[in-house]
Structures are given as C-alpha cells and as structure tokens.
Amino acid sequence: xxxxxxxxxxxxxxxxxxxxxxxxxxxxxxxxxxxxxxxxxxxxxxxxxxxxxxxxxxxxxxxxxxxxxxxxxxxxxxxxxxxxxxxxxxxxxxxxxxxxxxxxxxxxxxxxxxxxxxxxxxxxxxxxxxxxxxxxxxxxxxxxxxxxxxxxxxxxxxxxxxxxxxxxxxxxxxxxxxxxxxxxxxxxxxxxxxxxxxxxxxxxxxxxxxxxxxxxxxxxxxxxxxxxxxxxxxxxxxxxxxxxxxxxxxxxxxxxxxxxxxxxxxxxxxxxxxxxxxxxxxxxxxxxxxxxxxxxxxxxxxxxxxxxxxxxxxxxxxxxxxxxxxxxxxxxxxxxxxxxxxxxx
Amino acid sequence: xxxxxxxxxxxxxxxxxxxxxxxxxxxxxxxxxxxxxxxxxxxxxxxxxxxxxxxxxxxxxxxxxxxxxxxxxxxxxxxxxxxxxxx
Lengths: 345, 87
Prior knowledge:
The complex is a heterodimer. By secondary structure, chain A is an alpha/beta fold. Chain A has 2 domains: 2-208, Peroxisomal Thiolase, Chain A, domain 1 (3-Layer(aba) Sandwich), CATH 3.40.47.10; 217-344, Peroxisomal Thiolase, Chain A, domain 1 (3-Layer(aba) Sandwich), CATH 3.40.47. Chain A contains 11 helices and 11 strands. Chain A has an 11-stranded mixed β-sheet, with helices on both faces. The longest helix of chain A has 15 residues, at 136-150. The radius of gyration of chain A is 19 Å and the shape is globular. The two termini of chain A are 13 Å apart. Chain B has helices at residues 3-18, 43-57, 64-70, 74-84. Chain B has a single domain, classed as ACP-like (Non-ribosomal Peptide Synthetase Peptidyl Carrier Protein, Chain A). In chain B, helix 1 (3-18) crosses helix 2 and helix 1 packs across helix 4 (74-84). Chains A and B meet through helix 1 and helix 4 of A and helix 2 of B.
C-alpha cells in the first residue's frame, strides 16, 4: 500500500501554485506546451543549463522537498531531455566529432532529471530513473511500492515527466501518432480521426507507507502489453477482482482517451465493464498525450479526492455517487502499453 | 572588422553559447571578469568558451595556462581573436 502525502504538477494547465482545474486552457497547433513557472527556487546559473524536462521536474520537485527529505528519488521518463540530446547528436555531425560542448550532453540523459533534483536538494539517497516508454511512471510507482514494503518507515519522491521535443514530435508525427488536421484541445474528442495531440509535463509525489496526513491511497497498479482490447478487458476484470472489495465499485474512471479513433475501443470496453454507475472523466484534453501522462492523471485524481468533486470540463458522463471515493485510472500509450491505477481517499 | 564591432559580436556569442538568461551585450562590460564576477560563470562555461573560439574563429587552445590568460574578460578574448583568428 502506498499513500500519497503531497503532490505538485507542471502541465499545460494551471496546476502549480494557484491551481485551477475548473477552467480549461485552450491550445492550438496540436502541441500542448507546459505553463512553466519562473523557477525562483532554482539558481540562475543552474537554470540556464537545464533542458525543459529537467527544468519542469526540478521546478515541480523542489517545493515538495522544502520540508521533507525523502529516502529516495524515483523518476519515470520515457525520453528525458530529448531536445538537448538531439542538439548534442547534431553537434557530433556538424563538427565532425570535434568541438563538442558538454552542456547539452550532461543535461540530456534521462537520469539527469533525478540527478539534478538530488544535487539541488543535497539528497544522496537512492536515485533511479525508469525509462519504460509509456509505462515509465507506472514502473517508478511499482519501485516505490516495493521499497515501502521493504522499508515501511521510509518516504520517497516519485515523479513522471516528459517534454515535447521537435525531434520526438516529428518522428511520432511521421508515424501517424498526431492528427494530420490542426486540432484545438477543446474539441479533441470530437474529431473522430486517427492521431492525437502532443503534451508534456512533470508531476511529483511524496509517498509513504503511512496513512496519517495522506491525500490519497494508491491501492493497486497493473500493467500489460497488448493490442487486443479483450486482453485489456480481462486485465481490468482481474485487477478489479484483486483490488476491489466485494460490493465496492469505482466512482470515477479517469480515462486516457486521447481522441485517436484507433484506440477508442480500449476505453469503451473499460467503460462498458464498469457500467453506467461509474462516472467517466477524461484528462488528455488537459495534458495532451505523452508517455508519462498517467502521472498527470494521478495528480488530477489526488486533486479530485482533495476537492471531493470532479470538474465538469473533464466529465464524459456524470457521477452518480454523492462523493468520489474510488478513482480508477486507465491509460494506454500508442495502443500497446496499458495500465490501471486505483486510488482511494 | 573593427574592434568595437568584434567586441559586440563576441558578447552576443557568449550570451548565446552560455544561454545567459536575461543578459544583454550591454550588460557585459569589456573589462568585467568573466569568472568570479557578476556573470557567475564556472568551469563548464570555460569549456564552452574554448569551443566558441574554435567554432567561430578557428582558434584552438590546447594549453590550459594559455586559456586562463585569454578568458579573463571580453578585452582579452577580443585581443587574442584579432591576433590569432583563422576564420
């Protein structure tokens, strides 16, 4: 069992500081860029070298570390600082393997995120980065769950982060993962066409095995790789049997539906299984699609649990229960990496 | 190229290479120490500046002692560039 005690998020929405999830920020051009703060808690000489993924992560993590020193930093990121990585690789070609500067390289590896957080918070404890593409954040959570089973008196920082880089956007675009037509996030689910819109963000969580003072309880997590919606259904059935008590039901399904007509079948089969008593909410119009978007979903679920209600702008079907107690997040990345995360108050 | 124009160009390149957020060429005095001064540069920046000289002016600095004398301020950089540039 894992309890979330505090959380922060930098995303394309107003999710850091003065949080506003009721009003959706609109984004054109198939890219939802994060609203970055001024990063006053990062020294300027350090900040100027940071790529966006590192910057967002440190910016989200530092407020959580002001009053708590975790026993480990566990980050999930599919691509890390891809933009800086490509700058460095391009330098190798342009300057024929000579005249290379170290700045872009040291900031570009995925583990630069956890290491920068470590350096700035003077934390020399367990430090690890999970890079399992669309399940990177889920594996970071799994790591924390296992550590807390072994060391129940400890606490950890867990995070999920990815940035939009021109490189990965162009490659994914050529592969058909983004919409050919220009779409605004406010009409993402109405398009009926293949592809989605890109997003980015960093969500951080302080987690412990103890419940006192916790925001939410993460009761279960499961991952599977498949392109068959019936296997997803079987996975959800097994997950529900394992983690829900007899007679207990999900109040809100936070669905990773992303406007890609090819993947709608996965979300619809989960909605069908949970039935009409379970409200359905969607979050990709807030975050855009990226490999660790499930971290945004967990942040959103925590916020809903704290506020005891879901904002109308996320709801596909309204809640029937007076209070939202159990939230199931179902997400999939590129139609083959699926995860279920169950959170309760 | 006139020295004053070259100094302005070098200042712009320093800002670009080192990604000096919210610094303008006018903020950098010709005799302001690059290291230990208001710019807050460190050892990684010195490598970036050596690369800048190589890429932009064809100057290869191989002796670290020589580098210390060149990368004192904009005046010393520009003076060295004027005498040693190959492009």
